[in-house]
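> @MW can you paste both from yesterday?
MW: sure, first one:
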Amino acid sequence: GVVTVVDTKALSEGRFASDEEAIAAQRAADPNVDHENPIEELFEDQLNCADMVILNKTDLLDRDELEMLSGEMRGKVRKGTRLVPARNGALDVSALLGVKAAAEDDMDNRLSHHEMEGEVQHDHDDFVTFAVALEGTLERTALLLRIEKVLTEHDVLRLKGFANIESSSARLLVQAVGPRLDSYFDRPWKKDEPRGTNLVVIAMKGIDKAAVQSALKG
């Protein structure tokens, strides 16, 4: 997925970066850059391409300023793109890389019973991580449509997991960042491996988990 970082303090003061002159000089020295594009156009292009926007330096704004800026950002990004606040330059890595970072990329490391039964303990107050298990074999298109609907209607930052698809001897790997959803068959199911569909969702705190689970189950 494409992640764009926004300097909220600079933006609240009508600038697009803390040092616009340095950015302009860097762009002027790059022969691959279209020098007719002003910084404002570059900023809007980055927002339009983003699957997730990190609102950095939110600790330097008061609540009203942050709400106003967030509203402006929502009007500039694509539908389904998530806005993630970062304070003091700190952001939970799992919001970007997934549940416990590298562990998420190894889907052979199955979720523990504790994780499957409820909410996963999380180190950041702004995010919540939970698992959704779906029973039986699923039709691929129908499942992906349900996931796309969840990504559009709920504050989901990332979703990843694997699915048991009907008429297939391989498991379907599913991963999403913001509105961007990808899926592919990664490997055949092992003979002694229980088939099932397990999805991990990382979302903003306050998300209606029951609604997300219901929508995914169909």
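MW: second:
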Amino acid sequence: MLLFSESFLPQATERLILRRFIDLDLERFLAYRQDPQVARFQGWSMLSNAEAKLFINEMQTAVIGIPGEWFQIAIAHKQSNLLLGDIGMQIYAENPTIVEIGFTLSPDAQGKGYAKEAVQALINSLFELEAINKWHNKSCSNG
């Protein structure tokens, strides 16, 4: 079984920090999670304020890497710590050497290469753990 230490997060890239959610993320998280243009490409429904608060609280203390369970990682701007989006990862319960990832970015963070930078950092970290040998993503047509 893949074990993640608490040192797995935060991770820094050139422009980003991948970290656990913080309470100050609520407003921006709710804004992009309630945006119909963002939600149409995702597998989740829009969240209420109470649901978003609960989600953030759960992710602040969730164990990272439990097979079969999704874990969301906040994507924040390195200089401002402003939430830009999030990456979800789920290690497959039936084959824990495979991880599925997905990401969501706030509309104002799209088109700047942040998703590529964040996903690349996460994938590199997962392969460095030497327990993951394949990653899987699902892509919705956004054209």
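> thanks! The chain has a mean pLDDT of 88.
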